[in-house]
Write a structure and sequence with these properties.
Layout: E1 2-6, H1 14-22, E2 32-35, H2 43-54, E3 59-62, H3 79-92, E4 100-102, E5 105-109, H4 123-128, H5 131-134, H6 143-151, E6 167-171, H7 199-208, E7 212-215, E8 222-226, E9 229-233, E10 250-254
Parallel strand pairs: 1-2, 2-3, 5-6, 6-7, 7-9
Antiparallel strand pairs: 1-10, 4-5, 8-9
Amino acid sequence: MRVYAVSDLHLDYASNREWLEQLSRREYQHDALILAGDISDKLALLAEGFKALKDRFSAVLYVPGNHDLWVSRDGMRDSIEKFEAVRDVAIRHDVHVDPYRHGDLAIAPLLGWYDYSFGEPDDFLKGAWVDYRACRWPEGYDDAAVTRFFTDQNPVAPSSAIDGASKIITFSHFLPRIDLMPERIPTRHRKIYPVLGSTILETQLRQLGSSMHVYGHSHVNRQLTLDGVTYINNAFGYPSEAHFTGRRLLHIHTEP
């Protein structure tokens, strides 16, 4: 079984949907796909994407991204209700939202959000970042509480689906550490760093014994190894980003 990874499909764009439809229906029938969030904020498009991918892969594993939890177009009370609806859609389409085991390989999704452990947002970011308008949380939820709502649901070792696995791959939509962002990022673009992720995810993936972690969200594709863990971002991205995102599936592991 080969394991592939992609994130940030953003199926709201017609060209992204067209790419998905032309994906081979035969080549990946014995393979698994890690889908690291940001598929669509529309439940109908999310379902369409899940169905298309399940028609092509033996197993699809998914964790929601921030776009998936926007409530501005689906009439949900808040983003917690949207999260439950998104999970229900995934489960109905036989998409894995819990740890997955294949032989000696375990793949574990890590839910998350951002808690400003990468820095404090400035007034520009608070005005420009769409989540502040498109997400809605129950009364009393600040960003730290939102992050804890998600990260408290993540698996801990030992887990029956993970215990004894010789290879553990974890994945999240959000970044687990800010040094995954390359030094070349211009200062003006670093304003978004506070909303990229949480150090809680780094602690959790280390506790699980992960040797490979797939993430999305930043749309800055790269692969690097830090302190014994290989981190991989393979964002599909917006059509306007075709000149620097791969816009392809990435083969990250083969399990006998």
